[in-house]
Amino acid sequence: MMTKKKIAAIVLTGAAALAALAVGASAVKIVPAGHTGVQVHLGSVSEEVLSEGMHFVAPFVTQVVNMDNRVLKSEANSTSASKDLQNVSSTIAVNYRLQQDSAASVFRNIGRNYEEVIIQPAILESVKAVTAQFTAEELVTERQKVSDLMKENLSEKISPYGITVELFNIISFDFSEEFNAAIEAKQTAQQNALKAEQDLRRVEIEAQQEIEKAKAEAESYRLKNQEITDNTLKMAWIEKWDGKLPAVAGGEGMMFDLSSLTGSEPQQ
């Protein structure tokens, strides 16, 4: 039978083994791919960060907080006013990245929820600031320019924290029903005006064509009239004459005189 001393020794050995495992587990930290390990020693954030992979730290006294350095996405819905005081509802999507060398500073000063604390408010402020510089119609027609200015404005706000804007997208711009109706009416009016202008141009061209056609016909008639002389009439008659002189075709003293057509003098 086992004595109490042996049992106590086994218990102590097991406890020591468990303690050793606990110490070993506490000393080994793994930083996932695409992350930076921020070391916190007894509540104090160290400037020395850990790269991705396995690391050994002081057990129990050092905590490692993993900060994500991958490209992340943040979406925001904004309501703002345009330059012409139109209400504009927009949906913005931003891809951003936390730089590795800023991970410790951001964790110390802001925490892991820096998207809610820094990025989301900065997006809304940037959207409102730029939207106010354009009319509602310009927000549609100059959308790329608006997007570039918003991205630039946002970058100026969050880059001091070590956060970079990778991509800025305006998902949608929505306006009031009254404004949409006004835009539709304007487009319809422009289309009608363009159609009327095209129709007028077509009528003018057709009228000009008719004028030119009439001029050509008149000129043709004029030339033909110039060509129709007594001689041409005589020649046309002679060409069609069969060579037979007509008999007396009338009453007393009435004869057809060929001299006027042949050009010969009448015989005495």
Automatic annotation (TrEMBL):
List cellular component terms (GO).
membrane
For this UniProt entry, which residues form the secretion signal? 1-27
InterPro entries membership: Band_7, Band_7/SPFH_dom_sf, Prohibitin
User: What stretch or stretches form a coiled coil here?
Assistant: 186-231
Q: Which UniProt keywords apply?
A: Coiled coil, Signal
Specify the domain of life of the species encoding this protein: Bacteria
A family per Pfam: Band_7
The Band domain sits at 26-187
This chain's protein is named Prohibitin family protein
